[in-house]
Each structure stands twice: as C-alpha cells, then as structure tokens.
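Quick note —
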Amino acid sequence: MISTLLVANRGEIARRVIRAARALGIRTVAVHSEPDADAPHVAEADRAVALRGSTSSETYLDVEQVLAAARATGADAVHPGYGFLSENAAFARRCAAAGLTWVGPDPAAIAAMGVKHTAKALAREAGVPTLPDALLESDDPADWAAAGERVGFPLLVKASAGGGGSGMREVRDAAGLADAVRSARAEAARSFGDDTVFLERLLDAPRHVEIQVVGDAHGHVVHLGERECSIQRRHQKVVEEAPSPVVSAELRARMGATAVALAQQLGYVGVGTVEFLLDDAGRFAFLEMNTRLQVEHPVTEEVYGVDLVALQLAIADGERLPFGQDDVVPRGHAVEVRLYAEDPARDDRPSPGTLHRYSHTSPGNDSDLRWEDALGESGEVSAFYDPMIAKVIAHAPTRTAAALRLAAGLARAEIHGPATNRDLLVAVLRDPDFLAGETRTDFLDRHPQLRTPPPATPRVVHLAAAVAATSAARRARDPLKDLAPPGWRLLRGAPRPVVPWEGPDGEVVPDLDGVGLRDVTPDGARVTLDGVEYGCRVTHHDAPGGVTAYVDDGEGHSAWREVPRLPAPHAAAGGAGPVSEVPGTVVEVLVREGEHVVAGQKLVVLEAMKMEHPALAAADGVVETVHVAVGQYVEAHATLVTLGTPE
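Predicted structure written out below.
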C-alpha cells in the first residue's frame, strides 16, 4: 500500500494529485523550484523539498534531485503528473530501482510509445489505422526531399521524441521542407535531447479525437470513451470536451476497440490516452499515445463519474479495475478550457508577471464550475514554465448548456495582472459555429475575429467607474477632505486640469457627458449609459507605471491607469536593435559583430514558457554589439543586439 506519495510536478496538476491522495489518506510530498517556493502546491502538501535552481532542466527534470527528495522524506511512491518526467522511461526505471512505486505504466510501454515513429509501427501491428510517414535518418536534403515526395504534401515535420507542439513544423510544398527540417531538429534537440524527426502526411482541418484507456495489472483494459480536443493554437489544445459532438455510439465503439487493442498489445497498466485524427467521413488515423494522465482528464471524469487520479493510485497498488466495459456509460456533457497568461491578439505571446487578483468566487459566480487552479488568489506567472493559470470545467446535461455555463463563469471571474486568453475562450464558447459542433483543428484560423472580440461593456462605462472610484479613493486618503467640498478651487473659474487615462485602446481623455454615476466608493460605482445601469467593481493595484484600476462588471473587464502629468523618464532600450519582449533564455544567436543584416532578419531566438520568440531586425543595419550568449537568461525589455547604420 502506498503511504507517502511524492508528486514530481508543479502547478494545477500537483494540486490535483495532492487532493486525491489526501482523500485516500496518503501523505504527500511536494518538490519545488526556487521561483515556486510560495506556490500553492507547496503549502498544500504534508512535506516539501526545495530543488536547487529555477529552470525546468535545473529542477523538475533533475532526476537526482527528485530521487533525493523521495529518500529524504521517506516517500514510497512517485506520481509524475504530466509533462516534465511523466513520460521518461529512464526515470521510471530509476524509481523502481530505488524501491519506489511508479504511478504510471511500465517503463517499456513508456519507451515504446515515447518514440513517435516506433509508436506508429506498433499501432499498425495492432491493426490501428495510420497516416503515411517517413523517418529522416540522414543529413542529406536530397533524401529529405525524396521522403517528402513519398509521404506527400502537405505534411508535418515532427520530433520523434516530442510532444505539445514542440519540434513540429507544417510544410505545404517541397520548397519549404529543408528549412523546416533544420528548424524542427534544432528545437527537438533543445526540448527533448533528441533531434530525430520524421515526416507525416498532414490532414487539413481534421478533428482531434482521443480515447481514454485504463488497464490493470490483471490483464483488464477498458476505454472511457472519447474526448475531442480540436480547438488548438500552435498544435496545443485550448478547448476540450467529452463526448465529441460528432462521434456516434458505433464510431465510439470502433475507435475504443482499436485503442484497447493497442493497449493490450503493450500489456499496458495504468491510465493512458490514444490520440487520433478524424475526418468528416468518419475515418480515423493514429496520431500518438500518451502514457500518462492528460491535461484534459477532468472532462472524462465528469462524464463518466470516475476519479482518474485515484484510479491511477489504486492500479499502482495492484488493485483490479472496479468496472468493466459494459459499465462505462456517459452522462451529460463536459467542456474544459485552458486559461493561459498569454495575449491572443499578439500571436498568443506569453505574458508572465504578477497576478494581483485571481478570484472566481465573486457574488453571482457559478459554483457548479470546476476550477483547477495553478495559483492562489494572487501569485506570479513565472517565465520559466508553462503559462497556464487554470483549467476550468463545466458539466451539464447538454453540450450547449455546459458551454454557456462555462462562458458565463469565465466572464465573471476577476483576473487582474497579465494579459490572458479569457476573452478568446468566452468568445469561442459562445460562437455559433462552436455551438453547432463545427470544431476542427483550423477553428481559430477560420475565426480570427474571436482573438479580439468587442468589449462586453462599453469602454466609457468602465472608464467612468475607474475615474470615479480613483477619485473617491484619493479623497478617502486626503487628510484635508473635511475642510472643503469636492472640486473646491482657490481660484474661482479656474478650469479643471485635463488628465488623460490609458486603457485597453490606448490613451484617452475622459469625456463622461451623458454618463450617470451613483453609489460611488473607492471600490466601485453604478454607471448609467443610454438608460442602462452597470454595477462596476473597481480594484486598485500597484503596477509598473503607476496604480492601475481594474474594473469588472460581471460580463466585462478592463484595466485603466491615470497618465502622470510629469511622467518618469522611461528606461528605453539602448541601441537601434531589438529587445526581449518577454523574459527568457537565449537559445540561438544568429549574427556576429560586424555582420550586415536586413529588416526582418532573425537575430536572436529566446525560449520562454515553452515557446520560441525570435528577435528581428527592424531595419537594415550593421551589428555593432551582441549583448547576449546562448544559455543566458534575460529579463523583459533587455537589449539583445545593437545595430548601427550601414555606411
């Protein structure tokens, strides 16, 4: 029996595993990097061990430190969550050698499915349909071109050891193949320590449908239906649901049977997911198998009434599955969204920083939603890791009811700080095509307007609330407030100073004619515009550039800052070269001092929050100074390269 479980992960999945273990009476141990010292998962575990370092490779991927933490705390089992070491067969073997129960499948199964081109061969042996593919085993571009012709265009270059969209490049024709292979190989080597890539036929706009499988050590394997995860950005899932709006009972049975057959061929023990691409004709093809818990596992739990983490722990303890295939019956519909600190209007650029306030318990919020939070009521979205703030899940009798309930709950949440994809998620969930089940992998490409949806509340309403509440807060702090009425001036007739404010659409001068205000306090106001009254909550937070007023009204939200009359000198980046848009680690320096460059040329590549961020030359020039080196960590807005004017 497992008595003490070390959770080798962070964020919302670490919290999820800790909750499940605690409910079973199992002691828990958290590990954490230096930036995560105050993270919620650390406080929620019974014991915690600090890992030296900040980056993933220094901490959560450091096998020796994780095993040392297990020894120091007397842990007898390890749950890897997902990501990090969860699909590392060598780590699983090390855990077994150390006498630790590994909460996951046998290392041999992890190894077999961890190499994508090998996994596809095993899938074919099990009778699972696959797409044409070709492994690139040479460094000769001519061989790559020949392989591309055999596979057929369009195609994907895919890292064989990869996942999550890393090491993946889309190629529409032969002309772009060589550059895509080189780029994917470089990223794969950095991300996975293995630059092996293969080519795979690309299906244009399929659905991404996956089957949840569960196997015990007594030879029983069942599937728990399907999840559809078609709405993606950068080949990474954003919205997931169960069941799929287009999978019939007959198709579910066929897809489930092939997934079970693959698991049985592997002798699979544990929880795993077999992923497929599905076309409009009902044809499906194997994509990959993930030998771990999936991020989107809650939708399966909600629809099938199971606790997959508790099931993992029971299977690891040698227990039999408590149900058979005939017992697996779906009920209702569940939808999950991934709330990220990223800006959809800027190509989903991560936006690390301070989360001043994060609350989904405001009056009127939907308590039926399931929030799987990575952070607490405030915290720091670190540049070192994935930018996920939370997963949010709704379950209802129908798909439409679940989607609309989820959209409403998201809209009402108070999220103050970094840019997030919240408005995009709400817009997707309410979009007619989404509600009609028209969900394919190109959904966001076909609906670019959802990235910048119009404000739910007129901007002037929130501006009025911000101005009024800020004035009320200033007056409440004024020691002379009782000596003169509001607006009193020494010189009769002197005009009020015009103070601009900075908001979502840039700098504006408040023009509040026609706007009514009542119940004004430092915490909000009731604002009337065109006969409609809006109850606005206002929260003030210290932020770079001054105090920011965040306004929420249950449907809309925005941030406003009074522009200082005497602005502080801005620490502009020196030189005529690019600066880092986000904090991150330099992974490539592509120029040398004295080199002539042209506008748009890639100079430096940063990696932050599991994404690459190229820094480009804004104009033609000559490289005067390269300020960074590969492996160096740089803060946001740091100058990377100084360019001079070409002679």
